[in-house]
Amino acid sequence: MSLYDNLLLQLDNGVLIITINRADKLNALNIDTVREIKTAIQQVYDDPAVKGAIFIGAGEKAFVAGADIAEIAELSDVNARSFAERGQEVFSMIESCTKPVIAAVNGFALGGGCELAMACHLRVASESARFGQPEVNLGLIPGYGGTQRLTQLIGKGKAMELLMTADMIGAAEAKSLGLVNHVVSQEELLPKCMEILGKIMTKAPLAIGLVIDCVNAAYDKDEDGYQTEANSFARCCSSQDFVEGTNAFLEKRKPSFKGI
Ligand code: COA
């Protein structure tokens, strides 16, 4: 039995390309798909052949058009909390992954789709991408971390506006707000993500993972980010890659990092 009914996985030059593959439902996240995303991201954590990952939606219309409204409609107050907590757990796994994860936003990124993109470390959008948190249209609010990550990424005032109006914004506005890092044509979307990951993959993997930890620590109320940074800095200094990196600089050659 295949692990995946709703995802396509492809390993390309060390990058696991994870395609949400429910194009007929605009790649809406049903519970099975969220469970499969957890399995896929666990593979990113565990498989040494995987150095980074990209999330993208199947087809040209949608990245992910939200959680599956047909399933949401059946939720009661008894199971709704665990529905949200399960999704939050999976998206936190993406955010905490110490290998870089990019969202290649190729169309609608609404509700859970915007939340999935925001859980990734970077977002690259095609010109046709549309972002929004339209949950209030359904009498709901985001449940997969959207109220928190949108506020972190674009600030309180604008997050309040998008969350309360349910407005959709285009790629250019998303870039001006800091919600996406780059906007490119549809054809350039995956190449641009691969280019960014290719650059990151030439750096020391341990240092990259610690950068992710430290930046995330800035948003963790239970953590002293400066302390996390000092500890991580010390951890780097005891690594072989630090010796290699500094020696390579002094010897005027390119470093060859091993991730230890
Ligand atoms: N959950 C379940 N099914 C969804 C979905 C979602 N979030 N978003 C789209 N679909 C389905 C539609 O029901 C339709 O299925 P059908 O062909 O079996 O009827 C199919 O995907 C195509 O969507 P459709 O609405 O016909 O496309 P459109 O181009 O007219 O509109 C959107 C595109 C994105 C504007 C519209 O689909 C939409 O508003 N989706 C819901 C977005 C949302 O509220 N997300 C937050 C959920 S919490």
Describe the secondary structure blueprint for this structure.
Layout: E1 7-12, E2 15-20, H1 31-46, E3 52-57, E4 62-64, H2 69-72, H3 77-96, E5 101-105, E6 108-110, H4 112-119, E7 122-126, E8 130-132, H5 146-154, H6 156-165, E9 169-170, H7 171-177, E10 182-184, H8 189-200, H9 205-217, H10 225-237, H11 240-250
Parallel strand pairs: 2-3, 3-5, 4-6, 5-7, 6-8, 7-10
Antiparallel strand pairs: 1-2, 8-9
Helix pairs in contact: 1-3, 4-5, 5-6, 9-10
Coenzyme A binds at residues 25-26, 28, 65-70, 72, 108, 110-111, 134-135, 138.
Would you write up a description of this structure?
47% of the residues lie in helices and 16% in strands. It has 260 residues and is α/β, with parallel strands linked by helices. The strands form 2 sheets. Strands 1-2-3-5-7-10 form a 6-stranded mixed sheet, sandwiched between helices. Strands 4-6-8-9 form a 4-stranded mixed sheet. Helix 5 (146-154) crosses helix 6 (156-165) and helix 9 packs antiparallel against helix 10. The two termini are 36 Å apart. The mean pLDDT is 97. Bound molecules: coenzyme A.
Number of strands: 10
Order of helices and strands: EEHEEHHEEHEEHHEHEHHHH
Question: What percent of the residues sit in helical stretches (DSSP H or I)?
Answer: 40-55%
Radius of gyration: 19 Å
Report the bound ligands by name, code or SMILES.
Answer: coenzyme A
Pairing-aware structural class of the strands and helices? alpha/beta
What general form does the structure show? Answer: globular
For the residues shown, what is the average pLDDT?
97
**Biggest sheet, strands in spatial order?**
1-2-3-5-7-10
Q: Helical region count?
A: 11
Strand content: 15-25%
Uncertain spans, ≥5 residues at pLDDT below 50? Answer: none
Could you tell me how far the N terminus lies from the C terminus, measured between alpha carbons in angstroms? 36 Å
How would a crystallographer describe the biggest sheet? 6 strands, mixed
